[in-house]
Each structure stands twice: as C-alpha cells, then as structure tokens.
Design a protein that fits this description.
Distance between the termini: 56 Å
Oligomer: single chain
Mean pLDDT: 84
Strand order of the largest sheet: 1-11-2-3-10-9-8-5-6
Radius of gyration: 54 Å
Helix content: 40-55%
CATH architecture of the largest domain: 3-Layer(aba) Sandwich
Number of strands: 11
CATH topology of the largest domain: Rossmann fold
Length: 408
C-alpha cells in the first residue's frame, strides 16, 4: 500500500469518526411530521396508543388488520360469489362482526373498501373513524359537510358534549387540524363533542346511523398521538372519546401506517440512523474523490537497465594480444596504416592515393599538427610500403607513436 493511499484512508476515517461524534453529541431535532405510524415515537406517531390499547380499550378484543377492508371482509374464495353488477346490495354476509377502527390524519381507505365498509356497517356493525377528511361518499350518504378554521391566534379547545363525562376542555392547538362538521343530518346524527371556545364552538365528534349500524366520526386524530397522550391530562380526552367504542371485536386498520411494508434494501437500517447515514455518504464521497485522483494515467516504473558492456576494448585487447603473441609485427603495421588513412579520408576528406607534398600540406592545414610530425609519419608509411624486410617490434612502436601524434 503506497503512502498516498494511506493518507486518503486516514483522512476518510477521520471524517467518518468526526461525523459520528458530532451527530452523537448534538441534540436530536424533534420531528413534528404527522406520521401516524405505530412504530414512531415522534410527537405525532401512534407508538403510545399502540402499546396502551389494553388500558384504553379494556372491553375490546383488538385485532390489527394490515389488509384493505375489502380483502379483510371478503375472503378470496368468496369474490366470485358477489354480485358485482349490484354493488349497492346490503344482503351480504360477512365472516366477522364488530367495530372497524381507523385513526390517521388522512383517510387511507380505498374506494372499493369504503363501499364494503358501508355495507359492513349497514349489517349492524360499527365504524369508528378519527380522521381530518372524508371522501365524497360520506358527505353524500351521511348528509354531512366538513369545514375548517385556520385563523391565527384562534383558541382551539376540544371537549365532550355529554356533561356526565366532565366539562374539562383540552387545548388542541398544537398539531390540531381545526376541522369540524359544518352541516349534519340532525334526524340521524348525535353530537358527541365540540371544537372551539366558549364564544364560538363547532361540532367535531358525531355518531350517525346507517342501516342497522353506526358511524362514529371524530375529526381530531391528534388526540391519539404520542404528544397528546403524554401531555398533561390530555389522555383523559382520548379515554372519553373511546368510551363510545362498542364492546366486542375491534378491527384496527393499520395498512400503510404500521411499517410492515419495509424496503428490502440491506442499507435500510444504515439510512434510518442519521450518524450511520452521514458516515455512509462520507465514505461514498471519499471513494469518489479517491477514484478521481487515482484515475490519472500513471507512468509505469522504469526499470533500471544495466548498460551493455563495451566489448570493443576487450575485443581489441584480445586481437592485439593475438598478434603480439604471434609476433607478426608487419601485419599490425599494415592494419594501423590502413586504419589511419581511412580515418583521414572520412574525417578530413583528403585523398590518400598519393602521399606527397600536396597531401602533407592539406593534412597539416586541416589538423593543425606540427609539419615535421606529419612529414615523419608520411616518410614511415611510404617506407613501410616500399620496404621488403621483415619489420620488428621497434618499427611497430615507432609508427604507432607517429600516428598517435596526428590523430589524437
């Protein structure tokens, strides 16, 4: 591992550790989003209500339903037996009976399930809804209308219409939607609770009949959230509302708000924790930076090549020793002369055919050597060419020294 990579890894580890430490020591911001999720411990989750159903609903056998109302009330085997051409028929029979409970800021029941819910209620069952809005089928079938007050600085208390339950008013300004019934069917509807103040109040909790059954509709679902169940005495308000819950089977609709539909990603837990999430993002950023800086083309390491040994000198020495051992001095003198004349022709461009006075003058002019040395060398060369006697070692040394004076 090279030094640069170690530096990158060290910086990345420091950044990740710093992010985790900063996130661990800083105060966690409060999430005020209205999740109505059974797992959420944030102010507007239903964690407390989910864990306190035993004390809040002591007379009910609670069953959580994560299916749609239609899937729950109509078994798959019975789908084909229903008369879809006459969906308004009230002659259906259901495998269960009791009360359907739905608590959420937004009405989450689909249209087909809503029609099935009306059919279920008409058979003598009950639907207990605590929501801030309702689809058109409710306003048309139950002859009700919903309005809202959003004026700033308007006091928004909630209390029960039945004085036997007490006259205590509960401040619902924090998170309250301010929705109320602007119109109701007084012949089939009973007012159970109010919203507003002493000077101006609105109905926000009713019971209305439909067929053989009843709808209980409450427009302030924040009363069942963690915040209000734990704030002061607001849990009393939720308990008073639930006193109207019929005893027996209670089917709590928790589809899309119970957290059962979870992502299959292995990073789900990492991304759900702020410290781990930011550590993961910093890791990815560090890897991107590392890739960018290391994506440049790097020159390969140039290997150290040992220079080829100069064998010319060794070869020359070998050849020289060979001639010396054989004692053939004349052959060496001839080769020295040939080498000298070849060099004169190549370097000084002088014709060496005839070694006369003209040759001597040209060579002296171009080499700048002493005239007497050049004349002596020319004499020796001519002498060796014309001589017929066998040269000795002293002749070889003499002509070699003469050549060295001119070309070195």
């Amino acid at each position: 591992m090279n030094r640069t990579l170690k530096i990158y890894i060290f910086i990345l580890v420091v950044l990740v550790a710093g992010a985790i430490w900063i996130d661990a020591v800083r105060p966690k911001p409060v999430d005020w989003s209205p999740s109505y999720d059974l797992r959420d411990k944030i102010p507007y989750g239903l964690y407390v209500f989910d864990h306190e159903t035993g004390s809040l609903l002591p007379h009910n056998k609670v069953k959580k339903v994560s299916q749609t109302v239609y899937e729950f009330l109509v078994p798959v085997a019975d789908y084909d037996e229903y008369d879809y051409a006459n969906e308004d028929t009230l002659a259906k029979s259901y495998p269960v009976s009791g009360t359907v409970l739905h608590i959420c800021d937004n009405y989450l029941i689909d249209d087909q399930s809503t029609k099935e819910l009306f059919s279920f209620v008409s058979q003598g069952n009950t639907a207990f809804l605590s929501v801030e809005n309702l689809p058109k089928i409710f306003t048309d079938s139950l002859k009700i209308k919903i309005g809202a007050q959003f004026e700033l600085n308007t006091k928004m208390d909630c209390w029960m219409a039945n004085t036997h339950l007490g006259v205590q008013k509960y401040d619902m300004n924090k998170g309250g939607g301010g929705y109320f019934f602007s119109s109701i069917d007084t012949l089939h509807t009973t007012v159970l609770g109010y919203l507003g103040s002493d000077k101006k109040k609105h109905v926000n909790f009713i019971e209305t009949t439909f067929g053989k059954g009843h709808f209980f509709i409450h427009l302030e679902p924040t009363a069942f959230t963690n915040y209000h169940l734990l704030k002061d005495n607001h849990a009393e308000y939720a308990e008073k509302i639930l006193t109207y819950m019929p005893h027996g089977n209670l089917f709590w609709l928790i589809k899309d708000q119970n957290g059962l539909i979870e992502s299959g990603s292995p990073f789900q837990y990492i991304l759900s924790q702020p410290a781990l999430k930011w550590a993961w993002y910093l890791f990815l950023l560090g890897m991107v930076v590392f890739i960018i800086f290391n994506a440049k083309r790097r020159q390969r390491i140039i290997p150290i090549l040992k220079p080829l040994p100069n064998t010319t000198v060794d070869f020359t020495k070998t050849i020289g020793n060979l001639y010396y051992q054989e004692g053939n001095h004349q052959n060496l003198i001839d080769k020295k002369i040939i080498y000298f004349l070849e060099r004169i022709r190549n370097e000084y461009l002088i014709d060496t055919t005839l070694l006369d006075e003209n040759f001597i003058k040209k060579l002296q002019a171009k080499t700048g050597k002493e005239l007497k040395d050049i004349e002596h060398l020319v004499y020796l060369i001519n002498y060796q060419r014309k001589s017929y006697h066998q040269s000795i070692e002293s002749d070889l040394i003499e002509i070699n020294n003469a050549i060295d004076k001119i070309i070195n």
